[in-house]
Specification:
This protein is an alpha+beta fold. It has two domains: 1-41; 44-159, Beta Barrel (Cyclophilin). It contains three helices and ten strands, in the order αββαβββββββαβ. The strands form two sheets. The chain has an eight-stranded antiparallel beta barrel with strand order 1-2-9-6-7-4-3-10. The protein has a two-stranded antiparallel sheet with strand order 5-8. The protein starts with a helix and ends with a strand.
């Protein structure tokens, strides 16, 4: 009889601790996801310059792995290709870490990664169904569309001095 009570007690204790584990695990996962989301959209202190012809624009990079890896590639000059009248894109020399998500809406001045190696500079605001990894954002987009023009363009990326 004592063995039966002991066995029931052990099983109940095991089930109770399993439920606690699941609850704590779910809370920890939620906290990690929120922390990752926060890092992807909060700027870090890294500022870069984009040089397009005679115009210079400043961008703030986000505090994520992709932005850090992109910063390590600088300085870099890319021949950016026109696409859809709203963006310029170019292949990077190597892949970057990704954490792609659909932003729903692209803002003029967004600097993003499509796939693992395509850098995109957006110069128009529009809705999208595509997923991107956020790299950073231009601080002032006045004159950006004009500087980029309607065709392909060379864009220099460098650390701000």
């Amino acid at each position: 009889m004592k063995t039966s009570y002991l066995l029931i007690y052990c099983l109940l204790s095991l089930l109770g601790s399993s439920a606690c584990f699941e609850k704590n695990h779910a809370a920890a996962s939620s906290s990690i996801a929120e922390s990752t989301k926060h890092k992807a959209t909060n700027p870090m202190e890294s500022k870069i310059k984009l040089k397009i012809g005679t115009k210079t624009f400043t961008a703030t990079l986000y505090g994520n792995e992709a932005a850090t890896a992109f910063k390590a590639m600088l300085p870099l000059t890319l021949n950016m290709v026109e696409l859809n009248g709203n963006e310029k894109y170019a292949a990077l020399p190597s892949n970057l870490p990704t954490s792609a998500a659909n932003p729903g809406k692209i803002q003029s001045g967004d600097l993003m990664l499509y796939g693992a190696s395509t850098l995109v500079v957006f110069y128009e605001t529009f809705s999208t169904s595509y997923s991107y990894t956020k790299l950073g954002r231009l601080e002032d987009v006045a004159g950006l569309a004009e500087a980029l023009g309607s065709g392909n363009v060379a864009v220099g990326f460098e650390m701000e001095q």
